[in-house]
Design goal:
Order of helices and strands: HHEHHEEHH
Mean pLDDT: 88
Protein name: MarR family protein
Pfam families: MarR_2
Low-confidence stretches: none
Strand order of the largest sheet: 1-3-2
Structural class: mainly alpha
Strand content: 5-15%
Helix content: 55-70%
InterPro entries: HTH_MarR-typ, Tscrpt_reg_MarR-type_CS, WH-like_DNA-bd_sf, WH_DNA-bd_sf
Number of strands: 3
Number of helices: 6
Keywords: DNA-binding, Transcription, Transcription regulation
CATH superfamily of the largest domain: Winged helix-like DNA-binding domain superfamily/Winged helix DNA-binding domain
GO molecular function, one term: DNA binding
Number of domains: 2
């Protein structure tokens, strides 16, 4: 037996996988074979920042062990520049290389194309805003269930 709550959980997971497939098609279309779709999303999310691997993990985008491996591969393939922190020699910081910036810009162009294609469909800006609001509520609810700080308490959702 399914419920709207469970269906939403399944849909969130499925949509994430579909988007990664869309991103893989874009990489293939561009002939990019030295980075995978998950790594390219990490790259996109780094953007113009200069971050530690720990900061990527804390932001909640990725699991720690996967981030370390993926960052290592992106450094090896020239998408990221890795440097020791000036202030803390134990800490390693990463930022996009020129190659990484070019791929990040290509992904941004893809996202812009997708947004333009949404024009005239039922996926209006208002509907997407409402969806984002609902997804943020679910995120806060789940955070409250795990006891993460800054989240609303479960009773705030009753």
């Amino acid at each position: 037996m399914t419920t709207p709550y469970y269906d939403a959980i399944q849909l969130i997971e499925r949509l994430h996988r579909y988007f990664l497939d869309v991103l893989k098609v874009e990489l293939d279309r561009r002939g990019v074979q030295d980075i995978n779709n998950v790594q390219s999303m990490i790259l996109y999310n780094i953007g113009d920042d200069d971050l530690t691997v720990g900061e990527l993990t804390i932001r909640g985008y990725y699991l720690g062990s996967n981030v370390s491996y993926n960052v290592k591969k992106m450094v090896e393939n020239g998408y990221l520049i890795q440097e020791r922190s000036v202030h803390d020699k134990r800490s390693i910081r990463v930022r996009l290389s020129d190659k990484g910036t070019a791929l990040r810009d290509a992904i941004a162009q893809m996202l812009k194309r997708h947004e333009e294609k949404l024009g005239g469909t039922e996926l209006t800006t208002q509907r997407l805003s409402d969806l984002n609001h609902t997804l943020h509520l679910i995120e806060r609810f789940w955070a409250a269930q795990t006891g993460f700080t800054g989240a609303l308490a479960a009773e705030d959702f009753d």
